[in-house]
Design a protein that fits this description.
This protein is α/β, with parallel strands linked by helices. It has two domains: 117 residues, NAD(P)-binding Rossmann-like Domain (Rossmann fold, 3-Layer(aba) Sandwich); 198 residues, Dihydrodipicolinate Reductase, domain 2 (2-Layer Sandwich), CATH 3.30.360. The strands form three sheets. Strands 16-15-14-13-7-12-11-8-17 form a nine-stranded mixed sheet. It has a six-stranded parallel sheet with strand order 3-2-1-4-5-6, sandwiched between helices. α8 crosses α11. The longest helix has 19 residues. The protein starts with a strand and ends with a strand.
């Protein structure tokens, strides 16, 4: 694949992850824009990008693929600017903080004939693909119920502050939009089914953090119903002590069950009435899609950055003109996440009423 030029908007933690991934797949890291030219220069030097850009327009002009890693409420405007300039886009989630903005981005991207991807990267753990293959092959039988959670503790204390919680840049939803969206995307991806309706409750534990009013939720709890009839419970929290990145799902089928834990990504629990098993990641025994992503031998751990690198590799392959790889999360998946988030917020605002997901 011909090396693509990668430009980056934003110089924080996610830009670190994006630049590592772009470098790993052989891109030219050409320019980075941040909140000021000075910060852009410093971030570019730290992350190994060729230069710090004077502004966003300069970074976009220097790239074939633009990575949007800015605060949530800037995503739509920055992705739109990149599309208008004829660039492919990798945009952090949430793709937009409103459904209307997310839909406008999908329409603009389609009209321009460009590639747009959203890093729902947990799809790229090999054992997630293995779980998906088991469901698709009918090994579990009809999915009856789902038990899932995404738990973190980085906002546990009242002194834990962040722009996502207390500033306009975070948007109207934090816990659900930032990590609940990952969980819902993963459930729909693995089951091949849609969340049709939901009932949600949210909680903001502290009215202020560091003296600044909190603008969005810390915790969300949902009951969901899938189009195929399965019922599920979802818990999303950034205040679960001891949980650093505890994304877990367990699917209960009419024949077997399957469980994946993101903090133990190299194994899959498969439950049966007579016996259960732990299936290790082994390229020799995995389904073809899972084996494709299993780039090191069994017993050699793979993790989050490996998944992110695989996602960027697929996004760049599509941007380079190849056939869109199976499972690549696109702007349409970003729009889908916006629809689910909007439904969850509407339900919570109505005290947990059931809401249909568009």
């Amino acid at each position: 694949m011909t090396a693509l030029r990668a430009g980056f908007l934003g110089g924080g933690f996610m830009a670190t992850v994006h630049t590592r991934a772009a470098r790993a797949v052989g891109a030219e890291l050409t320019a980075l824009a941040s909140s000021s030219p000075e910060r852009a220069v410093a971030a570019a030097a730290s992350l190994g990008v060729e230069r710090g850009a004077a502004d966003i327009a300069e970074a976009i002009a220097a790239a074939d693929v633009v990575h949007v890693c800015t605060p949530n409420t800037d995503h739509a405007a920055h992705a739109s600017a990149a599309i208008a300039a004829g660039k492919h886009v990798v945009c952090e989630k949430p793709l937009a903080t409103t459904v209307a903005d997310a839909r406008s981005l999908v329409d603009a991207l389609d009209a321009a004939g460009l590639v747009g991807a959203v890093p729902f990267v947990y799809r790229y753990h090999p054992m997630v693909r293995e779980a998906r293959a088991l469901v698709a092959a009918g090994e579990l039988g009809a999915i009856l119920s789902v038990d899932a959670a995404y738990l973190q503790d980085w906002m546990l204390l009242p002194t834990d502050g962040n722009w996502r919680a207390t500033g306009e840049a975070g948007g109207s939803s934090r816990a659900f939009a930032d990590i609940g969206s990952h969980l819902c995307d993963l459930l729909e991806f693995v089951t091949g089914d849609r969340i049709a309706r939901l009932s949600a409750r949210t909680r903001t534990v502290y009215a202020e953090r560091g003296g600044v009013p909190v603008a969005n939720e810390d915790i969300a709890a949902l009951v969901v119903e899938f189009s195929g009839g399965a019922l599920g419970t979802l818990l999303v929290s950034q205040m679960a002590a001891g949980r650093k990145n505890g994304l877990v799902f367990e699917l209960h089928g009419a024949r077997h069950a399957v469980r994946f834990e993101q903090e133990r990504p190299d194994e899959l629990w498969i439950g049966g009435r007579e016996a259960s098993q732990l299936r290790p990641r082994d390229p020799v025994t995995l389904s073809p899609d899972a084996a494709r992503l299993s780039i090191v031998p069994s017993g050699h751990p793979m993790g989050y950055q490996d998944a992110f690198n695989a996602f960027v590799r697929d996004a760049y392959a599509a941007a380079a003109g190849g056939e869109e790889p199976d499972g690549l999360p696109t702007f349409r998946d970003g729009l889908r996440a916006s629809l689910v988030t909007e439904a969850a917020l509407r339900s919570a605002a109505a005290g947990g009423d059931w809401v249909e997901v568009g």
